[in-house]
User: Which sequence fits this backbone?
């Protein structure tokens, strides 16, 4: 992926929806990531809507997303191939809607669409993370790509997880080059306890990135401000989320 020059990069807007779901607005399209619940804003009907789901976990994907096609005809779905195709087909049939366009994706697969290009990168859990290039800018929604080092588990298990995550970050950095990312949306999960900041720190230390936004916080939004209190050097790069529906530009 090659970024554009500073003077020809597109503007973008980002809204935190709920948990791991964000809505990215581009000049000609919307991308809704990992939606399963939460309030969506009214969208500009002249822009195409793309719905992406990084994996099958209930807090990242729900068949409810297919209801969006009633209001926004032409919605395209880009789904990790670990999501049950049969479940999707049954849900669509029960809703009584025409089958929408679904693009199935797995690590290493990419699609070039009219408004952007999307490439699936790997995860350290299930499914994929999404790497997107649009108008000279690059965005990452990490899905469950994280250093999932849990408390009270075998040390060897956490060491393997950390090694896998660091290897993934090294590979991602090689793909991106020194210019890195404009936006990264990454997990910061308080269920990890003292380890919740480990993955984000490793990400920030490895990947050149202009703006980072947390997700997977289980509505414990104070963790973002706490992170900056401990690591003030990331003020201006790391942006805490304070509530559902918060906008970033």
Assistant:
């Amino acid at each position: 992926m090659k970024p554009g020059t500073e003077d020809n990069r597109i503007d973008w807007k980002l809204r935190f929806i709920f948990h791991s779901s964000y809505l990215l607005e581009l000049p000609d399209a919307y991308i809704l990531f990992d939606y399963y619940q939460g309030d969506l804003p009214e969208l500009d009907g002249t822009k195409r809507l793309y719905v992406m789901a990084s994996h099958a976990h209930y807090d990242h994907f729900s068949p409810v997303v297919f209801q969006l096609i009633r209001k926004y005809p032409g919605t395209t779905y880009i789904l990790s191939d670990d999501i049950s195709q049969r479940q999707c087909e049954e849900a669509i049939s029960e809703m009584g809607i025409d089958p929408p366009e679904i693009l199935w994706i797995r690590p290493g697969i990419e699609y070039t669409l009219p408004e952007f290009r999307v490439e699936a990168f790997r995860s350290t859990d299930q499914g994929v993370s999404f790497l997107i290039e649009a108008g000279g800018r690059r965005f990452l929604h990490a899905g469950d790509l994280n250093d999932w080092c849990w408390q009270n588990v075998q040390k060897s298990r956490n060491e393997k997880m950390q090694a896998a995550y660091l290897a993934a970050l090294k590979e991602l950095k090689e793909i991106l080059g020194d210019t890195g990312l404009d936006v990264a949306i990454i997990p910061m999960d308080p269920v990890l306890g003292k380890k919740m900041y480990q993955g984000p720190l490793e990400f920030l230390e490895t990947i050149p990135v202009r703006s980072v936004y947390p997700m997977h916080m289980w509505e414990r939004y104070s963790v973002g401000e706490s992170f900056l209190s401990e690591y003030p050097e990331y003020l201006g790069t790391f942006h805490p989320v304070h509530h559902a529906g918060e906008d970033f530009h």
Q: What stands out?
A: The two ends are 23 Å apart (CA to CA). The CA atoms of residues 2 and 63 lie 34 Å apart. The chain is about 20% helix and 30% strand. The mean pLDDT is 96.
